[in-house]
Amino acid sequence: MVGSRQSYYTEITEDTKKLIELPGTLGDPIAAISTLPGVIIPVAGNEPAVRGSSPADNKYYIDGLPAGYIFHEFNTSIFDRNTVQNFQLYSAGFGAEYAGATGAVFDVRLRDPKKQDIKTTIDASLLRGGIFMEGTVTEDSAFYLSARKGLIQYFMPEEDEDEDDDGVRIKTPPEDNDYLAKYVWDINANNQLTINLVGAGDFAEADFDEKSDMAALNPDFAGEAMLKDRFDSQGITWRHQFATGAELTLSAAHYKNRSKVTWGDNYFENVTFEDTLVKGQLKTPLNESHTLTLGGELDKTDFNYQARSVLFVCTEFDVECQNNRREVFTQDRSIKAREQTAYLIDFWQINANLTLESGLQYTHNDYLDQTQVNPRMAVTWYFLDNVALTSSAGRYNRFPDIETVLPEIGNPKLKAPTAQHYTLGLKGEVADNWNWNIETYYKKLKNLPLGLSEQESDAEQLYANDVTGTAKGVDLIVNRALADGWYGWLSLSYAKSDRTNERTNETRDYRFDTPVVLNLVGNYQINNSWTAGFRFIAKSGEATTKISGIEPNPVFPDKYIATYDQPFNDRLPTYARLDLRLQKDFQMLGNDAKFYIDVINALNRENIVERDLDHEKVNQTGQLFMEEEADLGIFPSIGISFSF
């Protein structure tokens, strides 16, 4: 569905335009990744899990530079719809130029600014308002600037404390903001300089009393809670085109994230993550059939951690962290990590129908004191005029989850998680406007963290590299390009993913294992002014663990916790949702404008996203009571965009 990555483009690609107009995304092209095969958005929200890998296994790039994150805390992306020229999702088998990911790579390409008189666009909906400015600076340079702010807090009704049934009172509804600026200077025909500035922030406050689920499990967590997250990044890139056709790219970037969370009995976590990167790549044609790419980067990371918190020794392998609660700890620590990466890629056009890309990547991390050499390969063979066989294989590694390798609360001797990817597929075209792609994949995951129980002989290590995993499946996408006023696509995925405790040989379904996912998207241009579209999604219920009973909380004996059946052997009900969008293009005061209506979950289907104890009743009676939490009901939204 997504198009090929290209540089120096000032226009949004046709495929990206489709994603911007996708129902249910409210004009957010990155949010449309949920319609792509192999992508699972956890029912609790947050970052996607791709083809059986963890969300933590993903890596994000903006204009070729690593990005800390591209999603706000509450799921929308940080990008204005006017800025994304294109993006690629590499869900498995990606090339040697990408480091630090064992799951998937999200490569966002921002479009270049247009050389034009300065033009301003105002965009507002029930969820977000923003301003976008673009235009010429000098004869050879141009810029754009986007600034946006979430508006949902202004439409949420004030809570009546007498109706506070769930024990949670929102003090400050979720707020978010972001900005993005890009400046491009075409120095001459062979040299270009680009400067990127990107930043985002999230904030929320709430009160949790003893009736809330959080305080029911941990009474010391009751009280005021606050989340404040902020990141800012700056990048500069110089590109030089040689007369031989070779291209040199040199980049430098700085990224800083500041996160603060407070809750309960004077608990807090203050985290500052600062990263400085220099990167270079030389791409040169050796002859008509061979192109060689040599690249490398130096990455310096400073991590500062201040906290008074409760230690939970827990990972994705665990059903519930409550049984792994340890002591309260206080820590003020800084660590430094330095990583060097180099890669070599050979692209060989063997003949008109057969291409081979082979690559080798070298990485060394001094904090882990580990070196990895990762071979990667991909082949495309058009054995028929309109049908190609594709295949890829590679080895990958990433830095461990930071909380598992910090001294005192983690194990600094952990190894880096690794993965092996294998894919095999077919792609082709049917008639003039139809194309399709079917691909099978297999991932083998190693060195995943296991949280050690206090009964283990090496419990003082807290974590060990004793979890492995597999993910396998098949993805199908059928795409109909825009013609005769309509376009659409269907994606269908079948997958199976699991994790194994190598100490006990116990294998469990992965917590985000979702065997079947169906997406159907359509958009029709009614006339020159009106377009209408829909998106339908249906997927297997997310893996869950059936609660079989209750027992006294070992830390707070007057409270209760759940006892469970076999881990992740049950499922939530099937999830299904229909989103609709109606858009009108018109002129306002002689300028372009758009009016749109989005209806999320138009059928008002009650999708169950969680089953848990009714902690209030359980703690009052000492008996088992269950409750279910449903996803958002029908949610209509309107918006307008006006350019001048």
From TrEMBL:
<dbReference type="InterPro" id="IPR036942">
    <property type="entry name" value="Beta-barrel_TonB_sf"/>
</dbReference>
<dbReference type="GO" id="GO:0009279">
    <property type="term" value="C:cell outer membrane"/>
</dbReference>
<keyword id="KW-0732">Signal</keyword>
<feature type="domain" description="TonB-dependent receptor-like beta-barrel">
    <location>
        <begin position="215"/>
        <end position="601"/>
    </location>
</feature>
<keyword id="KW-0675">Receptor</keyword>
<keyword id="KW-0798">TonB box</keyword>
<comment type="similarity">
    <text>Belongs to the TonB-dependent receptor family. Hemoglobin/haptoglobin binding protein subfamily.</text>
</comment>
<dbReference type="InterPro" id="IPR000531">
    <property type="entry name" value="Beta-barrel_TonB"/>
</dbReference>
<keyword id="KW-0812">Transmembrane</keyword>
<protein>
    <submittedName>
        <fullName>Iron transporter</fullName>
    </submittedName>
</protein>
<keyword id="KW-1134">Transmembrane beta strand</keyword>
<keyword id="KW-0998">Cell outer membrane</keyword>
<keyword id="KW-0472">Membrane</keyword>
<dbReference type="GO" id="GO:0044718">
    <property type="term" value="P:siderophore transmembrane transport"/>
</dbReference>
<dbReference type="InterPro" id="IPR039426">
    <property type="entry name" value="TonB-dep_rcpt-like"/>
</dbReference>
<keyword id="KW-0813">Transport</keyword>
<dbReference type="Pfam" id="PF00593">
    <property type="entry name" value="TonB_dep_Rec_b-barrel"/>
</dbReference>
<dbReference type="GO" id="GO:0015344">
    <property type="term" value="F:siderophore uptake transmembrane transporter activity"/>
</dbReference>
